[in-house]
User: What shape does this take?
Amino acid sequence: MKILICDDDEALVSMVRFKLTRDNIGEVVKALDGREAKTLLKDNDFDLVITDIHMPFHSGLEIITFIRHELNKATPVIVLSAEGLENTVLQAFDIGATDFITKPFSPAELAVRVKRILKLK
Amino acid sequence: MGQTLIDFTPETLFDTIVFIAFFFFCSGLLFMFSLYLLRIVKSFRKKTEQRVREQSQRIVNTIIINDSMSDRTAPEAAFSFQIQQLKLLLGHSTIRKNVFIKLLLDIKRNLSGSSAATVQSIYKQMQLEEHSRKKLRSLRWEVVGQGIRELGEMHCTTRINDIRPFINSRNELLRQEAFMALVRLQSGDEKFSFLDAYTETITSWMTLNIHAFLLQMDSRELPDFSRWFHSKNESVRLFTLQMARQFRSTKALPRIAELVNHVNENVAVLAIETLGEMDAYPYSDVLLSLVKASSIRKVIAATKALGRIGEPEITAEALSPLCDHPVYEVRYVAAQSLLQLGAAGRDRIMEHQSSVSGIIKHLQEPLLQ
Assistant: This one.
């Protein structure tokens, strides 16, 4: 499995990457801004994308739109954001997010959700 | 004629110019060399910080992830070993300790539950509490602020007395940090007790930040803000009223209603607005008595609130005379509120068509809806 994590918070990316790798979920690739995420998405096929909403260059919501409308892919997307406002959550689901996790979060919970989405044991 | 001190012959003039040129050349060289040296030091520090951050993050990740595993595969000994590794990495360097604490704060901001508790535990096991406490003695306010934040975020309850003096600091940001730290560290009824002795101003910026911080708290931990409605400090009265309104503290409504006639107009107006915002229907009678008040601000606030919570027939009758009020703003809110009241309000507006026709046209403009 190949997972892309997009977040400008390096400490968080490192933590999530460590957790998912340790749980043998798959290879985790990081992108520290929206532009890097778009480039990686164009050049690679990912089984799952985990993205923050507020990032430099392109927001997480733009990333979802890019996956759904420009790449025409059904890759599952988990939004991981500190902004848990009802409108934001609804907007994320509306444009095609698969799941929404509000920060602060538990890495163990994230791993369970990732496994469920990827249908892993 | 007496001789001048310096004899400006062409030779001495040339020597002076050469000397000045040489002096400036050397100063320039020295300046450029110090800039270069400063750059090297900065770049070295940056690289060291990056290295410490990366190395310590790996160990911290291992501790947190191991600790959150349900089967707890790593024994206690492994935790102690990793702490020892971190201690070796940081040594006695203040810079390294600061980088590490910043990393812990960054990680903790994103984590909840047992993972967040593990971060606190790492901080305490690394004996960084004393390092943060020393920052409180710094002459630089930003360092003091950092120290307060670190002790608060890492839940160092034994440091409450060290933080408490900053609650009445003259520096607004230090007051704000101390406020949030004390709310984090104190428990039960004591959580907001420092407001009893708060003498400084709570600025709008502080209110915004504190509100954002309180939003993340368990609402059951919020106090009965009405306890400070009669505080000696006007700033505390206004702040607690705003918090009661933001967190819709219905328990405080009877005491908010008592404040509508407060001698301080700022408090009274905020109380009136709060009743409207909180949809306090049982208190619409209290507001009705205020539409004839002498204070224009009170009249405007009460009229606006009544448009939202007033009983249509009675309120429309009470607001109707305000359509002929000499102050434009009063006529404007009266028309607005009458429109909000529905049919009863519209009938009253028709009676004052000449005074408020322009306002009604403006309020009914489709582009402004």
